[in-house]
Amino acid sequence: MLNYLWAGMIIVGIIFAAFTGKMADVTNAALDSSKEAVTLCITMMGVMSFWIGIMEIAKKGGIMEAAAKKMRPLIRFLFPELPEGHPAEEHITSNIIANVLGLGWAATPAGLKAMEALADLEEDRRRGRLPGPVRKKEIASNEMCTFLILNISSLQLIPVNVIAYRSQYGSVNPAAIVGAGILATAVSTGVAVVYCKLRT
């Protein structure tokens, strides 16, 4: 649907430019935007590589494992139906840590693995291998819903994406957004946790 919407907007813009004699402006804007998009991609690639590298160093240095142990009480509180020591726990922890650091790119693979592990957990429950509530295959579990809502609300201490964008577009103080980002995401995460606890 979005493909049709974007294609429609582009076509309407070109037709409008043709009838108003502004085709040169459209051509210049397309070339300038293409150049800017490539520059932005290179900037974001550098930022992403740096932070994902930091995450890998943290994993290999045992920092992630130590953080996972420290976060275990929080994970138990948020996911009370999740069996202790289940593989989903590690992926959920990695995802939360990556989101807190503002690393959406690093959080995505961990999030996908967490959802796969939670789907396997549901399958084990359906087959009677593990205790717990049994749901139909097409119905998401409480753990899946809670994880998705937390992922969307996403507390961020360092909004790396926004800082990189602001830096790219010439902001005098790209990190000025940090305080507002922490406040906004803390509120959204707090609301998400309350909602999840009330609904489960």
What distinguishing features does this structure have?
single chain, 200 residues, mainly alpha, globular
Secondary structure elements and pairings:
Blueprint: H1 2-20, H2 23-60, H3 63-78, H4 87-100, H5 104-126, H6 142-153, H7 160-168, H8 178-199
Helix pairs in contact: 2-7, 3-4, 4-5, 5-6, 6-8
Descriptive account of the structure:
- The chain is mainly alpha-helical and 200 residues long.
- It has one domain (46-199).
- Helices cover 76% and strands 0% of the residues.
- It has eight helices and no strands.
- The protein has helices spanning 2-20, 23-60, 63-78, 87-100, 104-126, 142-153, 160-168, 178-199.
- The longest helix has 38 residues, at 23-60.
- The protein is globular, with a radius of gyration of 22 Å.
- Low-confidence stretches are none
The separation of the N and C termini measures 34 Å
Report helical residue fraction: over 70%
Strand content: under 5%
Tally of extended strands? 0
Report the C-alpha radius of gyration, rounded. Answer: 22 Å
Total helical segments: 8
Any idea how many domains?
A: 1
The run of helices and strands is: HHHHHHHH
Return the average pLDDT rounded to an integer: 80
Q: Categorize the overall geometry.
A: globular
Question: How can the largest sheet be summarized?
Answer: none
Output the structural class: mainly alpha
